[in-house]
Amino acid sequence: MPSMKKKEDVFFTLFAESAAKVVKVGEAFKDLVINYENVARKVAYIKELETECDVKTHSILKQLNSSFVTPLDREDIYAMAKEIDDIVDSLEEAANRFLIFEVKSMRQEAITMTEIILQSIIELDGVFNNLPDYKKSESLMDKIIEVNRLENDGDLVYREALHTLFREEKDPIELVKWKQIYEHLEESLDSCENVANMVEGVIMKYA
Question: Exposure of 167 by Cβ count < 10 A (0-12 exposed, 13-18 middle, 19+ buried)?
Fold first, then answer.
């Protein structure tokens, strides 16, 4: 019986490791937008981290395929792993756009959205560190609620960013560039909320 328990616990460990990697991506992306220099090098570093996150995701899925007993429903484990990966993919896509579009300077709206995304990622890191004790953790739901609050704040910033862009930007090329960048940031924030909602669903299922 102890060995079975140990095999089940590996999923919680893998999720915690994956969440920690996502924090690194968020921090690297924040460094890119706040200290907007050496862009090619910083984007390359984000790509390296994204690859490391992919490896973590594959580890979870590989463990899922080889495990007869899992601590959570298999479809929940799969969905959470894929959605965590989507947080990183969207940030990497945004980072690539800065390079491909040859963005010359950063916009405050992108910085604000990035700060909200990073805070959401940090909250999710706490969620996954508390996940093994999901049946009795008092802080777990607080962190999930906070991610939802942050997503609402991010939505407001996103809508205002688009409003400002379409109202003030006269260059149609710049408008297209920044619209895409904002969309990728919004997708990353949405994925953060999706992960939080999935964990909430797991808690409700096993309550």
Answer: exposed
- How far apart CA 43 and CA 68 sit, in angstroms, is 39
Interior CA angle at 92 toward 188 and 75, to 5°?
Answer: 55
Q: Please report, for the domain that includes residue 166, its CATH number.
A: 1.20.58.220
Calculate the alpha carbon distances from 47 to 35, 42, 72, 91 in Å: 18, 9, 31, 10
Q: Which residues of 88-110 are buried (b: 16+ CB within 10 A; e: fewer)?
A: bbbbbbbbbbbeeeebeeebebb
189 neighbors 151 (Cβ within 8 angstroms)? yes
Overall number of domains in the chain: 1
Alpha helices in the chain (DSSP H): 2-34, 39-66, 74-100, 108-130, 139-168, 172-206
pTM of the model: 0.94
Q: What is the DSSP letter of 102?
A: T
Please determine, for residue 202, whether its predicted confidence score (pLDDT) is greater than 60: yes
Structure tokens at 80: 């959470």
Mean pLDDT of 126-146: 89
Range of the domain at 159: 2-206
